[in-house]
Design brief:
The complex is a heterodimer.
Chain A lengths: L1 H6 L2 H29 L9 H10 L1 H35 L1 H16 L2 H39 L3 H9 L4 H41 L6 H10 L3 H33 L5
Helix pairs in contact in A: 3-10, 4-5, 4-6, 4-8, 4-9, 4-10, 6-8, 8-9, 8-10, 9-10
Chain B lengths: L14 E11 L5 E11 L3 E5 L6 H9 L6 E5 L2 H4 L4 E4 L11 H11 L4 H14 L15 H13 L5 E5 L7 H18 L2 E6 L2 H7 L2 E5 L6 E6 L14 H18 L5
Parallel strand pairs in B: 3-7, 3-8, 5-6, 6-7
Antiparallel strand pairs in B: 1-2, 1-4, 8-9
Helix pairs in contact in B: 3-4, 3-5, 4-5, 7-8
Classes of the chains: A mainly alpha, B alpha/beta.
Bound molecules: adenosine-5'-diphosphate and magnesium ion.
Chain lengths: ~260, ~260
C-alpha cells in the first residue's frame, strides 16, 4: 500500500485494488467451478454462492451475533486504549510506580489468553470474559508504546521546557504526549488487530461452557452440527469485521500521526 | 561603577554572570571543565572559542542552570531562575515539529502563563525582527535550516532576555546563510541590547561577531586566553578583508592551536 502511495500515480493506486480483486475473482470462480464439476456436497465444501445464500438466509441469527462480538470488541479495545495511555502516563511519572507494576504488565502479556480465559469465565461470566479478554490482549501494546513514546521526547526540547520552568502538566501535555502520539498510534493499531482475536478466543472458551451468543460461538456451534455452509458464512463475517476494525483504526491512527508528526518518517 | 573590576577586559561594565574556579565532572568520570574563570559583562558579545569536546556546551548549560557545577561557584545564575531573564539557542533549532512558527515562538510565553491574544503583537514583532514575517503559519519541516534557526532565535528573544546564550547555532548552515545570519544577529543584538555568549569553533565567526573572544583549552576545558576585539561596532562584509580583523583572527587561531597542542587529536 505504501509503495503504491509513494508511486503516487493513479495507475499504481488502481492496480493496488485491481490486482487483489482479480486474484479474488479468479479464486472464487475456480472454487465455484470445482464444487459444481466435482459434485462435492455442501457439508464437505460449500461453493461461494452457497456461502452467500447461507449468509443471507441465516442473517437473523448471525447479525445479532456479529453485533454482540463487535460491541464487546470495541468496548474492550476502547477501554484498553484509554487505560494503556493512562497507565503509561502514570508509570512514567514515578520511578516507584514503574518498579512496582511493570513486572505484572509483562506477566499479563506473556501468559497466553487461552490459558486465562477459562478462569475468567468461572468468575466473570461470558460477557465480561469476552470484554476482559479483549482488554487484556489490547492493553499491553498500548501501554508499552505509550511508555516508549513519552520517553522519546527530544532531550533538547526537554531542556527548553526546563529552562522556561514548565510545570509537570505543561511538560506532559505540550511536550511528552505530542511526542508520544505516533508511538501511541502504532500501539493502538497493533491492539486493534489483536482485540478481535481476543474476543474470538474468549467466545470459543466460553462457548464450550454452553452459553454466549457472539459470532465465534456460532462458529463453534455450526462446527459441532456440521453446518459447514454456516461455518463458512460466519468466518466470512468475522473476516469482514476484522477488516472493518483495521480500517477504522488505521484511518484514526493516520490522522493522529499526521497531526503530531507532520514531517512524516 | 563600583569596585575594582575583576578582569581588565570586562572593565567597562559590571559582570552579569561570573564563573569562579568552576569544574564539572560527569557521572561517567569525564572531567569536562576544570578551573574555569569567566566573567560576562553586561552588554558585551562574548565568543567562546574552543576545539570540539572541550566543554563549551557544558559552560552554557551551567550558566543556564541546566546543570550544576561540581566545583567552584557561579554568580548571576539567578538570571535563569528569573522568568524570561535568559534565552538559549541550541545547536539544532529544536522546534516543536507539530507547532507552526508562531506557536513555536509563543512557547516561552505560553509556559509563563501568557494568554495567546496578549502575545500576538509581540510574536509578530519578533518574526519581523528576525525576518520571517509571512511564515507564521508554516510548520518547521517546511522551512530551510537557516529559517528554522531564525525561528529559534525569535523564540529565545521573545521574553526579552538580558542574556542570550547561543551554542554553535550556525554550525550546520552553509556559508552564505551563516554570513547573513551573522549580520542579522549583530543587528538584533544592537536592537535588543541584550548580552550574548556565543559558542563557536570557527575563529572567523568568533572575531567577526564578538567584542571579546575567550579561547578554551582542550578537555578538561578552562579559559586559556581572552582577546579583546577592538573593531568598530558596525560590521559588514568589508570587515572580512580588513587587516585588523585578519590580525585578530590570526591571534585567536594561534591561541586555538596552542589549546590543541599537547592533546591527542
Ligand atoms: N551528560 C554527559 N555525560 C557524560 N559526559 C558528557 C556529558 N555531556 C558532555 N559530556 C562530555 O564532556 C565533554 C565536553 O562536552 P561539551 O561541553 O558538549 O563539549 P563541546 O560543546 O565543547 O563540544 C565531552 O567529552 C563530552 O563527551
Ligand atoms: Mg557543543
Amino acid at each position: 500500500m505504501s509503495r503504491a502511495a509513494r508511486a503516487g500515480s493513479a495507475g499504481a493506486r488502481f492496480a493496488g485494488w485491481l490486482l487483489p480483486g482479480a486474484v479474488l475473482a479468479a479464486t472464487l470462480a475456480a472454487w465455484e467451478a470445482f464444487v459444481a464439476l466435482s459434485g462435492t456436497p455442501a457439508y464437505v465444501l460449500p461453493a461461494p454462492s452457497r456461502v452467500l445464500r447461507t449468509l443471507a438466509a441465516d442473517w437473523p441469527v448471525l447479525a445479532p451475533a456479529l453485533g454482540v462480538t463487535l460491541r464487546l470488541t470495541l468496548a474492550g479495545f476502547a477501554s484498553a486504549a484509554a487505560g494503556g495511555v493512562l497507565m503509561g502516563v502514570a508509570l512514567t511519572r514515578s520511578r516507584w510506580a514503574e518498579l512496582a507494576f511493570s513486572p505484572y504488565a509483562v506477566i499479563l502479556q506473556v501468559t497466553p489468553l487461552v490459558a486465562i480465559a477459562p478462569i475468567l469465565v468461572i468468575y466473570a461470566g461470558v460477557t465480561a470474559t469476552v470484554y476482559l479478554s479483549v482488554f487484556l490482549v489490547a492493553f499491553f501494546p498500548v501501554l508499552a508504546a505509550t511508555m516508549a513514546g513519552l520517553r522519546a521526547a527530544d532531550p533538547a526540547l526537554s531542556d527548553l521546557f526546563r529552562l522556561y520552568r514548565a510545570t509537570p502538566a505543561q511538560r506532559l501535555f505540550q511536550l511528552e504526549l505530542p511526542s508520544a502520539a505516533p508511538f501511541i498510534a502504532a500501539g493502538v493499531r497493533t491492539a486493534g488487530g489483536l482485540s478481535l482475536i481476543g474476543a474470538v478466543v474468549a467466545e470459543f472458551v466460553a462457548g464450550a461452557g454452553g452459553a454466549g451468543s457472539g459470532l465465534a460461538y456460532r462458529i463453534v456451534e455450526a462446527s459441532y452440527r456440521l453446518n459447514v455452509p454456516r461455518l463458512f458464512a460466519s468466518v466470512l463475517l468475522i473476516c469482514v469485521a476484522g477488516l472493518l476494525i483495521y480500517a477504522i483504526v488505521s484511518v484514526a491512527c493516520a490522522a493522529l500521526v499526521r497531526r503530531w508528526r507532520p514531517q512524516g518518517g | 561603577m563600583t569596585g575594582a573590576p575583576a578582569r581588565p577586559l570586562s572593565a567597562t561594565a559590571p559582570a552579569l554572570v561570573s564563573l569562579a574556579g568552576v569544574g564539572k565532572a560527569f557521572d561517567n568520570g569525564v572531567v569536562a571543565l576544570q578551573g574555569v574563570d569567566l566573567a560576562v559583562a553586561e552588554g558585551e558579545f562574548l565568543a567562546l572559542l574552543g576545539p570540539s569536546g572541550c566543554g563549551k556546551t557544558t559552560v552554557l548549560r551551567l550558566i543556564a542552570g541546566l546543570d550544576e557545577p561540581s566545583a567552584g561557584a557561579i554568580a548571576g545564575q539567578a538570571l535563569a531562575a528569573r522568568e524570561g531573564g535568559l534565552g538559549y539557542v541550541f545547536q539544532d533549532a529544536t522546534l516543536l515539529p507539530w507547532a507552526n512558527v508562531a506557536d513555536n515562538v509563543f512557547l516561552p510565553l505560553r509556559l509563563a502563563g501568557v494568554a495567546r491574544r496578549d502575545a500576538d503583537e509581540r510574536i509578530a514583532a519578533m518574526l519581523r525582527l528576525v525576518g520571517i514575517d509571512g511564515f507564521a503559519g508554516a510548520l518547521p519541516h517546511q522551512l530551510s535550516g537557516g529559517m528554522r534557526m531564525r525561528v529559534a532565535i525569535a523564540r529565545a528573544l521573545v521574553t526579552r532576555p538580558r542574556l542570550l546564550l547561543m551554542d554553535e547555532p550556525f554550525a550546520a548552515l552553509d556559508e552564505i546563510t551563516r554570513f547573513r545570519l551573522n549580520d542579522d544577529l549583530l543587528r538584533l543584538k544592537h536592537e535588543t541590547g541584550c548580552t550574548v555568549v556565543f559558542v563557536t569553533h570557527s575563529v572567523y565567526e568568533a572575531v567577526y561577531l564578538s567584542t571579546r573572544v575567550a579561547v578554551m583549552s582542550a578537555r578538561p576545558g578552562r579559559i586559556l586566553r581572552e582577546i579583546a576585539v577592538d573593531l568598530p561596532a558596525r560590521r559588514d562584509d568589508a570587515l572580512r578583508r580588513d587587516p585588523a580583523y585578519l590580525a585578530l583572527c590570526a591571534e585567536a587561531s594561534a591561541a586555538l592551536h596552542a589549546a590543541l597542542a599537547g592533546s591527542p587529536a
